Amino acid sequence: MNIAGHSVDIPQQMRALVLDGVGFDHVSIRNLPVPTPGSHQLLARVEAAGICTSLIKLIEQGPQHGLMYGWDLCRFPITLGDEGVVTLVQVGEALRDQYQVGERFVIQPAVDHPPVNHRERYRDGGRGVNKVAVGYTLAGHLAEYILVPEEVLNAGCLLPLPRCGLPLAHASMCEPLSCVVSAQDHHLHLEQPDPLAPRCSAKGLKKGGITVVVGAGAMGRMHVDLAFAYKPRAIVVTDFIESRLALVQKLFGQRAAQLGIALVLVPAKTSSLDDVVAELSGHKGADDVIVAVGVPKAIEDSQRIVGRGAVLNLFGGLKKGQEVVGIDATAVHYKEINITGSSGGSPWDMARTLELIANQQIDPGAHIARIGDLEHAVEFLESVKAQDIDGKAVVYPFRRTPTIQVVESWSGADELAYLQNG
Asked: Is the pTM of this model over 0.70?
């Protein structure tokens, strides 16, 4: 069988990252039987998979996680991983007119569909469950093979890659980037070019406006990356960690100059974000403010820089017990501020992200900081928990290597050389 240029025989066993209880002591690489797809299912080989920070919450909460619905991990361990790119290796009998071996896809992990399989494993037999997730109760990407079940297909969550030459690691970044696409798509600006004209809404960041990103961590940098597509006149980025700001300059400074967009970096320890935004805007305030950190004070302080009719996006999730923050209702009322947020993307967001990657309007490789083997997944997760990785980690399940690569970015040429030397 020839898959993506390689002769592949489907083995009986595969390696997978498994969670069989609560806590990191219950996370390990195991040998599991390779699934056999049913008539309405697919089997795919995982070409590359990302390590998502959301896995920390899943590991620490287990059956109590909101997407687990009481699933007993001790009796029914799960395969982790909600980010990845896959190639079909086996097609269920009922789907052979729709799919072909060798086709390559990404999967939207948030599946808006009731459980079809193993309903007895859910609390109350799955009654009232209308959303399941890949890497949770559905098999995940941190394995050599992944079963693509009816839930994923019925919900339209299997999305084809736009062209064959897309780097695998870049495609595996589609899910986290789609969260950013979704978030910025939630920005709505009311426009009224004439006082007697009706208001109309413009979606996305304001063209020619001032965009502020609070937090220059991995997700904040993704927001900066996507913001260029909307062509604001200035992108302001602030963080307490100055090395992150230096990385923003290194990754995006040249693009900003080429596009004529001012990239303004504000070290929070030594500079006043309020003063910088006031000077840039003529004291009118920013048009779009994205809080990409889960810090209540950051949300409260960011309200001061939001201009009239602007959007405040609460992107960074807050810890349990910190969810309630102070909102200046007077400013919302008199400045007509829109406050928004989003949680994950939809299949459309994934498709839009693939389009942006294919058209080189965003660069997934700029956000990759570690490359390794599936065997490194536990170490990567522990590093993510300890905040020792400032960027994304990607594993190639079929590329065996004892060494983790620390990288500042990861291009298609980097990937090709890495896989050819495997």
From this structure: yes
